[in-house]
């Protein structure tokens, strides 16, 4: 069944800082995510350019992660993503100070280099949906970054913070403080998190808008596939969360691409995770590790790099049914 952050200004008062910078919103100001297609350059073979900044994960307490001062070689200063914006709740898009401090365009962290075109291979899929869940007890963050498989351009994103349903409010506060307090994004989480069922309802609207799936038809994704860094997200965590939320596992979660397996078979070396891949590929990290939307962007950058090197992304795992075992399609895989 279908499921119908900001370096503070030179003021001494925290209240004044927050009153100037925080994108206040109320329940009545919740907006549906606005989707904008960017021009594609299908037919061009493209390699991913590395980010010019490697920010440190310090926090400012205003819903975003602060950057480190940019290196002298940086062509542009890195700015943290406005997490109210990714939730469809930023009300400060006309505030110049806010726009100077926050990034409202995820594509700036996912640039492409059109000059390196000789190794890129044709892909069987048109789009990759890079997914990296956060939350061990229950899912706390559901970020997806969409990449055009041929042009390697950032197309769109879906990002929601998820409110647990089987935990006490006190436990949730402790959980969120431990998980997101160190990034300074615990407040934006509390302001925007919604139950998992509602997240899936909005996500289904999103993939339906992009014509990847239809509620009345169900089935697998059309011309797109999830890419995860490991099998945990879709093999283990989503089914567990569906049971907790008392909903059936959606059909579009039945298959995925484990980037670790693609990496192993393409480069002939094992990577335990995203950080290992980025270190071996000499790629700097953008944002904060374990902030889901930043991890999803970094994984997407690894995908861009691998495609630029000539890798082909293929489905690596399939679930036979909502309750069935997972079949792994690569003999040489990460276990």
From TrEMBL:
- The answer on whether this UniProt entry bears the keyword Membrane reads no
- Write one Gene Ontology MF term: nucleic acid binding
Which protein, by its recorded name, is this?
A: Exonuclease domain-containing protein
Task: List all membrane-crossing ranges.
Answer: none
Q: Tell me the InterPro entries matching this sequence.
A: 3-5_Exoribonuclease (IPR051274), ERI-1_3'hExo-like (IPR047201), Ribonucl_H (IPR013520), RNaseH-like_sf (IPR012337), RNaseH_sf (IPR036397)
Q: Where is the Exonuclease domain?
A: 127-312
> What CDD domains has UniProt attached to this entry?
ERI-1_3'hExo_like
Q: Which residues form a coiled coil?
A: none
Q: Which SMART domains match?
A: EXOIII (SM00479)
Keywords tagged on the record: Exonuclease, Hydrolase, Nuclease
Q: Which residues form the signal peptide?
A: none
Q: Which PANTHER family does UniProt cross-reference here?
A: 3'-5' EXONUCLEASE ERI1-RELATED (PTHR23044), 3'-5' EXORIBONUCLEASE 1-RELATED (PTHR23044:SF61)
